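new request in #modeling-help
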Amino acid sequence: MLKPRVIPCLDVREGRIVKGVQFARLRDAGNPVERAALYAEQGADEIIMLDISATPEGRSTSVETVKAIRQAVGIPLAVGGGVHAVDDAASLLDAGADKVCVNTAAVREPALLEALADRFGSQCIVLAIDAKRTPCEDGLTHAWGVVVRSGAEAVKIDAASWAMEGVRRGAGEVLLTSIDRDGTAEGYDLDLIRAVRASIDVPVIASGGASTPDDLVEAIRAGADAVLAASIFHDGVYSVREVKFLLMAKGVEVRM
Amino acid sequence: MNGESVIVRTGTANLASVVACFNRCEQRVRVVSDARIIASASCVVLPGVGNFAAAMEVIECQGLREVLCRRIQEGRATLCICLGMQVLFEASEESPGISGLGAVKGCVRKLGGPRVPHMGWNRVEPGRVRECAALNESTRAGEWDIEPGEAYYAHSFAAQAVPEGWRGAWSHHGEAIVGAMWRRHVLACQFHPELSGRWGERLVRSWLEYTTVRAEEVTC
């Protein structure tokens, strides 16, 4: 039986970890290599690093950061941010990433997913979806629309349908972020997790809104195969090990 | 033997993780594709990520089939990871009509588990000793074994039987799959030891120590 994964996320900008609320109001949260090594030591099941650098210099710093993290940790490392072409993915994988996350570029050009899966295999390709609740025309119900460019632009695509198409095109995993919840500490958007879970059979990584171990438990019960969290770990409220002990105590079997 | 550890360049595989793992085990390693170096190296890693047919094409094009088969048959230190384990078999459902190395009997099958790809951490348990009744004494002497633990997997195809004469370790993902198999100094892992945290590092370290020690005994 697969065990649900606990994944600390490093949002990295110009070589430093930053943390924001709903993708804005960034503040410094430490050195990515030191943090990755610490989390791995505490029992993290994987590390996800998202490069949100604004400049080309920042991007090349990021490749160096990937190399340094790879030397430091012996657990899977997924890297995203700025993957627009097969070559971008190749340079991250060469630097030591095990998987690449692709977001905006896949929405713009879905065939990129096929190109990436053909070259590197589906197990290497994580489709990152940023989803935002949008009211339906009836004014009563809502759906989740896809947003791109770090939340700056909404596109008229339903998140669950996009997940399905992305998997059909070759994504081996979906990193599902609720923009509404990101950085809010209100817990994951469980309905979003259920909606996407029901539409695909590859692993779903839930992201956005975690502030307590109970939030992680609920996301896993809603069908997430992995739970991503950032502030909860960066702020030192809980160590990864403490979180995993608390998950075990709630009956969620994790790797200890 | 030239005392060297090398990783076979199979094209699409992520080699940085394997290199980093060996470095953490204080083992220098370089990436090569030259058949002569692979034949003479004291330790060879056959990694593999991607597609069965693509990996076999690289192996055939670089003229590595015979060299690799001989290493496996002679039981020389060879660590095969993920797809690198699958190509040891005769064929795979991933690429019908493509011959594997055929160093062991059997075929690799598409996973039937609840989630495919099988991606994440899963328990690995060594097979019971009675399953190894077929092993001859020389194989059983100086036992090397895998300790139970949690391993990281990322694959959609797997072997479902341990070949005769090999020892095996198992995982369950809706069905039993061969997590690892080993015979003499050959270790083949469906999971990624280089990504399996402390447990994976201990496994690689203990296997390196075992193969190095045994190789020295042979040379003396």
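bot summary: Chain B has one domain: 5-219.
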